Amino acid sequence: MRSRSESLEFALLGLLSQSPLHGYELRKRMSAIFGPFRALSFSVLYPQLRKMMEAGLIDASVADTSRRSRIVYVITAKGTKRFETLAETVSPDTWEDEGFEIRFAFFGPTSTKNRVRILEGRHRRLKEKAEILRGELEKSPVGIDKYLEEWRRHSLESAQREIDWLEDMIKTERK
Known about the structure:
Keywords: Methyltransferase, Transferase. This protein is mainly α.
């Protein structure tokens, strides 16, 4: 994903490819993807939805529910094609933290070949990160804060756990 906007577009198209949804439900499902600590505000969501409507990727209709009307968003044929294109696009952004998280949430529609490429890219990226952290821990400059050193150790352990998990995922995908 080249930008946050494109990442958000990909995730919204992915959700809408599963079923039509109203804004609140989209926000709730996006929070499930991003996790509880990175909330998606309505001030970000609705301008993105408007931009996608203007591009012809989604349509909106008013659905009357028991108390009030809600705007329900649905993916268009153009939006489906765009989602398929994005799902098959692999770039270094797809294995960085946020890009990988969003791509992994919609791994199903991604071809096996590209799933493996993304997993391998993420694996390489984390191996590089682990080597940097390992080097920093080995040379630990005198006077470094003990909490910073502990944070680096924790980060290295977390990276190593994800590396191990990725190796298992890559083996599974290659079968």
